[in-house]
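Could you help me review a protein record that somebody else here produced? This is what I was given.
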Amino acid sequence: MYSVGLDVDTFVSISNENWSEKIMLYAGKILLKDLNANILLESKNQSAGNLSSSNTNLLNCETNRIISDHFTHKKFKSDNDFGYYLAGLIESDGYFGNSKLEIVLHEKDKPLALYLKEYLGYGLIYQIKNKKAIKFVIRKKSALIRVLDLCNGKFVTPYKINQLKNQKWVSAALLLPPLLHISLSNPWLAGFIDADGS
């Protein structure tokens, strides 16, 4: 589990048969309440809620046993899973505007931008001047429609759907409503974290 861009003392609701309904964020720590045991995600030397995979350990609160100290990226086997991941990525740090999609990533995430470009078959990658960030941009209408086909019905909040409603290339009648909950059974949260996690 990861922590991303959420304020201290924020509560996130998650629907999954294996987990209870709350993740409680605290300064530098997250408490995941499992149905059978508590698992603590603990950060060292980080600001409120911002965890880094390089210095984060998952600890079982009952035994203080390290479960994992690193996370790996896997390539997606289906468009459905990739669509959830992409929806999370866009909801975290993406923007639909002026017939384009922009996703801002840390410069160390350039391999992710290249993977997106390869998977979607289109995209431009720009270094943002005077920042340690890159921007993945899609302007081609057919590629934007492909992104919409992959993500439609997979957004958790209404914000990106509202951005899409303002685009000339989108038929608002075809947009599916937001999910309004985060599920651990799909890769949406991994996408959200990859864009805005640290």
Observations:
- The two ends are 13 Å apart (CA to CA).
